[in-house]
What does this fold into?
Amino acid sequence: MFSVVVEFPGAAPALTDLTAKEFLLRHASGAYTTARTVNRKSVFEFDTHIARLVTSLGRMTPPVHTDVAAVERLMVPMVVAALQTYISADPQGREMKVTMLMHDLGEKGASVHVSDLFEHSSTPCVIDVHGAPRSNPAAKDSQWVRDRQSLEQLKSPDANDMVLQDDLGRLYEGLQSNFFVVLNDRLVTAPEGSVLRGTVQSVVLQVAKENGIPVDLDFPRLVDAPLWSGAFLTGVLGSLFSFIVSVV
It folds into this structure.
């Protein structure tokens, strides 16, 4: 298994054995986002990922104030170069995962990592319920990759993700996903501002709106699990997948 890294704007793409997680951990904390390709020809919701970088940069400490156009000027050539290099090395491969990291608008303020996209199977998965909500959910800061390592060590071997729960039993989001339940024929997911809004989550909410499916932006509660008629996680790595077991 290999990956492609573009370490800074203008740098030549290089083959590496670094995973996306290792790539993020070897760099200083910064704003990041993880996307996926579609048919190996485009990046799903690319505009949304750029907007997320802009928002996250503005909420860093200290904040970096910029706009979509400036971030696109840096990121687009790097993403294109990394994807082209990966496809050249693996022309018949699967979809790709694209991780974009930004610290500032300087000459070495951005990096890109491209790797094979591992997609979860369509069979129901297992989740753990543990931990506490993150302190700054509105910003996608790579420091979260470091902070969640202690939780990942607690995750059951067969668990696909861990959903965070507060002291009141309210369920927030997964370590790498968003969380939905179906209760009384309504979609229920944590309110905006309490979790990081995911790209696939946003698509689900838009589809629900277009099809007249009622949505409650409220916290699901584990105590109500016997009443759920369904539940699922959304995220770039699996797009949308259901689960059957919750482990506290």
User: Anything to note?
Assistant: Confidence is low (pLDDT under 50) at residues 239-248. The CA atoms of residues 171 and 220 lie 5 Å apart. Residues 68-89 form the longest helix (22 residues).
